[in-house]
Specification:
Blueprint: H1 13-31, E1 40-43, H2 55-63, E2 67-71, H3 84-91, E3 99-103, E4 109-114, E5 124-130, H4 134-143, H5 151-166, H6 172-177, H7 182-192
The structure holds two DNA strands.
DNA sequence: GCGACAG
DNA sequence: ATCTTGTCGC
């Protein structure tokens, strides 16, 4: 059982999810030494990030494992916007494996937009996390795609959701430990008046 | 000033 | 992310 308390805030995903991910990697290393990953596909971004250091970078540094950022949606980064030009470039990706780069205002490549399979026109946003080149990252992600979402991430999604389905409720003491949001505090105050 | 912005 | 009703295609 793990508990996540930090809220989701775009640009700060790592502060919410990395602690649990590090824990999972360490448990794998302790309990399954015969199954050591050579690279991690991270559900989120690496260098494609407002401060150039997304979840895949955090996890890579803390585990010293090669990490690849794989986002299903484009995070807002200065110089990288999903305007009409972006949508047009996405439409130009006709076949699985086709890509185009995402560049910041200075011309530096932050990541690649990848059409991961022929069936889906919605691309993936691949970026370097740690100890891997962008070219290798794109090739690996592409090679993992039976469907749009790379199989390791897809399986993690499916299996974690199945787990949550069987463990629907968090322990009461955990819920009580979570501070009330300003919004809910306001509602509670109104009720008590 | 407001909205947009990984999961 | 989550919820939800229906639809299209292999």
């Amino acid at each position: 059982m793990v508990a996540v308390t930090a809220p989701y805030v775009a640009g700060f995903l790592a502060f919410r999810e990395v602690p649990v991910l590090v824990e999972a990697v360490q448990r794998l290393q302790q309990e399954e030494p015969q199954l050591q990953p050579q690279v991690l596909l991270v559900d989120g971004n690496g260098l494609l990030h407002p401060r150039g250091f997304g979840t895949a970078c955090h996890l890579g540094v803390l585990t010293d494992l090669p990490c690849i950022g794989v986002a299903k949606n484009l995070l807002h980064v200065d110089g990288v916007v999903r305007d009409e030009l972006h949508r047009e470039q996405v439409r130009s990706l006709q076949r699985s494996g086709e890509t185009f780069p995402l560049t910041d205002t200075s011309g530096k490549v932050l990541g690649m937009v990848l059409r991961s399979c022929n069936n889906s026109s919605k691309p993936l946003y691949v970026s370097v996390g740690h100890r891997v080149s962008l070219g290798t990252a794109v090739r690996l992600v592409r090679a993992c795609c039976r469907f749009r979402i790379p199989e390791p991430i897809r399986q993690a999604d499916i299996r974690s959701r199945e787990y949550l389905r069987k463990q629907p409720c968090a322990p009461l003491e955990v819920l009580e430990a979570v501070p009330a949001s300003p919004e809910s505090s306001k509602k509670e105050a109104e009720l008590e008046d």
